[in-house]
Amino acid sequence: MAGIINFRFFVHIALEYLFTLWICFLLYKEYDYVATMRLHFMASQRRRVEQFTVVVRNIPHMPGHAVSDSVEGFFKLNHPDHYIGHQAVYNANKFAKLAKRRERLQNWLDYYQLKSERHPGKSSTVKTGLFGLWGGKVDAVEYYTHAIKELDDLMTLERQKIIKDPKAILPVAFLSFNSRWGASVCAQTQQSKNPTLWLTDWAPEPRDVYWRNLAIPFVSLSIRRLVITLSVFALVFFYMIPIAFVQSLANLEGLEKVAPFLRPVIEFNFIKSFLQGFLPGLALKIFLYILPTVLMIMSKIEGYIALSTLERKTAAKYYYFMLVNVFLGSIVTGTAFQQLHAFLHQSPTQIPRTIGVSIPMKASFFITYIMVDGWAGIAGEILRLKPLVIYHLKNMFIVKTERDRGKAMDPGSVDFPETIPSLQLYFLLGIVYAVVTPILLPFILVFFGFAYLVYRHQIINVYNQQYESAAAFWPLVHSRIVASMLISQFLLLGLLSTKKAAKSTPLLVILPILTFAFHKYCQRRFEPAFRKYPIEVRYAPCNKPIFQIAY
């Protein structure tokens, strides 16, 4: 009997090896394929502005020299054969506000012109007072035409003022080179003896630039990232604190303290039972709904200059939250604080055993989770009920012109910060339970099958591409899939160590080592192509600055 039991455990171990080898094989092939496509895209004959452009930040202040003069002198001296010119970045916040105001006025003008065309015999009027609530009535078309003309003159003066003011130039610039080789050398080398000055990097494509973070000083960047790292750690492990605070306000006692005048209404049995059953869950849902937005704000505070980088960093934060609070939090009972306390006060070797024991007992919960959150989420993605409701609300209250209608109908782009971590969580569930409780696998396979069909359709036919990152997300996806395999191996090791086949667990020790070695090999083999541009191929030169049109 003992021999049969040991044989069954050896089958689990053999299947873990089989799954790991198969996933590693597919990951290697996919990494090779994605890296090859990326390099072909970079080396294509079509010239892309970001392939000839480098962004330089932390330009040092030189007494008696303007920022533009400093940039011109420095790069003509150090890159004389390939540097063409540069485009300075100006602090034009006031001009941007005027531009937004002009856009609103133009929209109102289009609305009243369209209204006049539809009703030729009826002229539209508008009040000249604050917000159009009072004041004398004038012809709407003439009023907005005159307002736009005055605003155009003001914008022209503001633009000339910015260009002539040396203080308006920020310590950042976009450099243009006559070849991709020259841009590669500048972007991938240290320019100054002081590594905190003249920081160069590949410029994001024009659609991908996050302009507000371009001029953040080096020291401020370091402080910001340290603070945000600590904040994310606190949010991940102590997220129950803000939820408990919100729910305390949402329950009956909290409402009565905040709004005593509602006490007679709250005492009705129907309202009381509704509030007790509905408000706490609503508070939790609202928190989880705004969580991606909060994480995106944190990433912006960190100071990254590309929207694609902001979304990658936000996706990483959201994945850590899902891993700790959905996966580990559902397996290990107790609050997040109790889990953290338990993990900190026990031997690290006991953590896989503690979690591994709970894994088989939570299989039914995760099957329900996949059906409710995963399958329903995919159905919601294809139906897009929330954007549909928002569109009709905008169409009812906001839309006045075709320009407004176009903005209201804009589907946006794929929500990478929330979508990718969710898909990675489902993959983690599949690889963890593939050997322990294989009954969960069909539910995962159905989910990924639907997800493939739905997102393929949405990307091709629905969403608009916001930027082109050339598969910059893939190294992070690869790393988290490998992390999922390592987690599944350690948890299986912890689970088997509690069974009668404890002597067979050393056979699993070598598997995480091989998996980690595979990951490091893939990093050295493929990841440099995602961080740097190779200069092996000679590219045709470009003799005209191309940043002036794009940026």
TrEMBL record:
Residues 224-496 form the CSC1/OSCA1-like 7TM region domain. InterPro entries: Csc1-like, CSC1/OSCA1-like_7TM, CSC1/OSCA1-like_cyt. GO terms for molecular function: calcium-activated cation channel activity. It comes from the Eukaryota. The chain crosses the membrane at residues 6-28, 226-250, 270-297, 318-337, 425-455, 476-498, 504-522. GO terms for cellular component: plasma membrane. Keywords: Calcium, Ion channel, Ion transport, Membrane, Transmembrane, Transmembrane helix, Transport. Residues 51-213 form the CSC1/OSCA1-like cytosolic domain. Pfam families: PHM7_cyt (PF14703), RSN1_7TM (PF02714). This is CSC1-like protein.
